[in-house]
Design a protein that fits this description.
homodimer, 136 residues, alpha+beta, Dna Ligase, domain 1, 2 domains, three-stranded mixed sheet, two-stranded antiparallel ribbon, 32% helix, DNA-binding
Chain lengths: 136, 136
DNA sequence: CTGCCTGCAAACTGTTTGCACCAGG
DNA sequence: CCTGGTGCAAACAGTTTGCAGGCAG
């Protein structure tokens, strides 16, 4: 169950460092272009592999958010997210409400309920501006 | 802004009917194979187009759930979902907790917060059985 | 040295779209 | 009829993976 071995390659280190530095909850692609400025020859596959690795080992968080593209967060402290319904961008909620307990919850067809989470939908400032100018 | 015109084709009717009949919150693909039993020549593209259409016109609900594959719900009443962390399957929560209000919520970078929703993670019975037998 | 990790490219999955024909109202 | 909807296939976007060589420890 524990990791057999871990190699801190330059790629892995830079990915982790840049993810922790940014506050934008980037997709793998976005992080790829950020990291490429420091490691021009890194491949997208490596970014994916390391994001998976880092998420599995608990150093970063895979966001369980709606939307087609996965996003990642270098901040693993417990906090909640707003997601822009137009572009999928994610922001941090500063004053989180308590998510309800799942103790004793019983759902048909489910063996167990592990935890709950509050998700917020919103409109980010960029999209708000864009909608105002576009007829939509 | 209103729909210009709407044609209730056989395909659209069957898709809507089958989606309302099932309780499994199917993906487009799953619904495709259900519908194909009645309309063997229907195309997957048509299923996607109609799911989009029906969701936009409010007759069905696109589930804003985590996971890579979109799922749809023929039940548009307000209720909450548990999602299996292994297979993505979705179940209905029978006794929903109230989702917190978003009045006056302010998030940096966001113009507005529209609504909140509680999501539950769980393990469905199928996966629970499978995990027990597999070493994982 | 050893074998985990990388770059590269091809493969895959889920979804969208262009086009010519079809059929609902 | 007329124009939205359909089937089909090709195109896309995001992600995963096989392979040969590279580098961390």
């Amino acid at each position: 169950m524990a990791q057999v071995q871990t190699r801190m390659t330059r790629q892995r280190a830079v990915i982790l460092e840049e993810l922790r530095k940014t506050k934008t909850h980037p997709t793998a692609d976005e992080l790829y272009s950020i990291v490429r400025e420091r490691l021009p020859r890194i491949s997208l596959g490596t970014v994916y592999r390391n994001l998976d690795f880092l998420a599995d080992s608990g150093e970063i968080r895979r966001l369980e958010a709606a939307g087609s593209t996965k996003r990642f967060d270098g901040d693993i402290s417990r906090h909640q997210h707003v997601r822009c319904v137009h572009c999928g961008r994610i922001g941090d909620v500063m004053t989180p409400r308590e998510a309800p307990s799942v103790d004793g919850m019983d759902v048909e067809g489910f063996a167990s309920v592990l935890n709950s989470r509050i998700e917020y939908d919103g409109i980010c400032q960029d999209c708000a501006g864009r909608v105002r100018s576009t007829s939509h």
